Amino acid sequence: xxxxxxxxxxxxxIEFGDLLNAHMNSERDLNVVGVAxxxxxxxxxxxxxxxxxxxxxxxxxxxxxxxxxxxxxxSGRAGKTMFVILSAIGQDVFIQRAMALGAxxxxxxxxxxxxxxxxxxxxxxNKDSSPFSVIRKIPAAGFEQKxxxxxxVELEVSKLMINIGILPYMRGYKFVKExxxxxxxxxxxxxxxxxxxxxxxxxxxxxxxxxxxRSIRKIINEIWTKGEExxxxxxxxxxxxxxxxxxxxxxxxxxxRDKIKTEKRxx
Length: 267
Known about the structure:
It is found in: Cytoplasm. Its cofactor is Ca(2+). Its main location: cytoplasm. This protein has 2 domains: 5-137, Rossmann fold (3-Layer(aba) Sandwich), CATH 3.40.50; 151-266, Arc Repressor Mutant, subunit A (Orthogonal Bundle), CATH 1.10.10.10. It has 12 helices and 5 strands. The protein is elongated, with a radius of gyration of 20 Å. The protein has a 5-stranded parallel β-sheet, sandwiched between helices. By secondary structure, the protein is α/β, with parallel strands linked by helices. The model is unreliable at 129-149 (pLDDT under 50). Helix 7 (173-185) packs across helix 9 and helix 7 (173-185) packs across helix 12.
């Protein structure tokens, strides 16, 4: 990759990305190895190039920045790459989520480019004991939980989905993810998916129960391979049998829910 700190920029704003690329490449110790314009391209480029640092936006086409972090953290494909979030979104929920998924630093646009580049250097120099990464290890006020005792349902669901081939850029991903999360948190919801679960998901995403149902069905059809061991069986480690060869939506949500709850008990 050449000399200096290798950096990949992932931002769908073409003008901004090009300006940041030019500014960073003007620094003798920085080497921009590529600019990704959407989340899917970012994942592919990060996996191929394994840059030292990725400058990642949150809002991008195909897969957003959080989805990029979820995918790479779950698959372990990012190696020792460090992530710096540079986004116009400054809400605490996004900052906390990004840090929980491994981001080293979060800076909100607009920003001072010289300060930002200084942070890049500091993060790289302290890569073995980053002072910024400590932020995500501080427990919430009033809690004394040890880090290993915390079970992040959303993260575990994301990891399981990726392991069986349901990726963040797939249409219906958000519906499946929300369905499993709600089923884990409220078992009654998975017992009445038509009357309770679908309407709840539809309301959250400003959709319709019918569209939620169809999208989940489409995901199941996409990942289930006819005549071969299903991706779920390879992950779950045992043979699964369904009357129609593939699970119904409710059966699929139930086995995903049970897998997550089993993992939770083990932790």
